[in-house]
Each structure stands twice: as structure tokens, then as C-alpha cells.
Amino acid sequence: MYSKQHVVTVRRQNATTAVDCDSESALAEDLNRLREKEELCDAVVECDGSAFPVHSLVLSARSDVFAALFANWMKEEAGSNRIVVEDVDALAMSRFLR
């Protein structure tokens, strides 16, 4: 049986990092932090004159609409990494991505 908090210790080149494996909110925060730093982003969502670097896998897992868009994008838009959303303002998209 597991305790309420699960922490994995990762050791690499004499560095030790504790990773909280139990908290869904911690995972969401970590993924958002990566997106905000534009690390490992593989696509850009553009809307209302703003561009948002995103992780297509995360958006696809959270939204059937984005899953369909990215699946179609992978087939038809090879070489392009941008999806333009015309019916959403930048503030709403920013909030959605958090």
C-alpha cells in the first residue's frame, strides 16, 4: 500500500532531484512551466494576433477538438507547426492553456 505522498529521487551526475509523483496539480504546474518557458514545445497556436507555444500531446489529451486538429495537421500540414484559431481571443486562449 502506498502512502499519501510519493516522491521519487532521481540521481544524475552527482545531482539529486526529488519528484512528487502523487500530485495531479503538481504535474499540471510542471507542464505549464515547460510551456511558459517554451521548452519541448512542438507547435504554436495562433489567435487574435498572439502566438502560444504548446505541447500538442498535452492539448490532444485534454481536448478532442485539439486532438482532431493535430491529427489532421500531422497528415496535411507536414513541415508546419502552426494552428490558427480564429474564433477565440488571446485572453481566453491563455486561460485555457493554463
Number of strands: 5
Could you give the distance between the termini?
33 Å
CATH fold field value: Potassium Channel Kv1.1, Chain A
CATH architecture: 2-Layer Sandwich
Number of spatially distinct domains: 1
Please give the radius of gyration in angstroms.
17 Å
The amount of beta strand, in percent, is 25-35%
Q: Secondary-structure element order, as H and E?
A: EEHEEHHEH
Low-confidence stretches: 1-5
Percent of residues in helical segments? 40-55%
> Could you give a short account of the major beta sheet?
3 strands, mixed
CATH class: Alpha Beta
- Going by CATH, the homologous superfamily would be Potassium Channel Kv1.1, Chain A
Strand line-up of the largest beta sheet: 4-3-5
Q: Quick check: average pLDDT?
A: 79
By DSSP (H or I, 4+ residues per run), the number of helices equals 4
Topology readout:
Blueprint: E1 7-12, E2 15-20, H1 24-36, E3 43-47, E4 50-54, H2 56-62, H3 64-76, E5 82-84, H4 90-97
Parallel strand pairs: 3-5
Antiparallel strand pairs: 1-2, 3-4
Helix pairs in contact: 2-3
Short account of what is shown:
This protein is of the alpha+beta class. 42% of the residues lie in helices and 26% in strands.
How is this structure best described in words?
It is a single chain. This protein is of the alpha+beta class and 98 residues long. It has a single domain (7-97), classed as Potassium Channel Kv1.1, Chain A (2-Layer Sandwich). 42% of the residues lie in helices and 26% in strands. The protein has helices at residues 24-36, 56-62, 64-76, 90-97; strands at 7-12, 15-20, 43-47, 50-54, 82-84. The strands form two sheets. A three-stranded mixed β-sheet has the order 4-3-5. Strand 1 (7-12) and strand 2 (15-20) form a beta hairpin. Helix 2 (56-62) packs across helix 3.
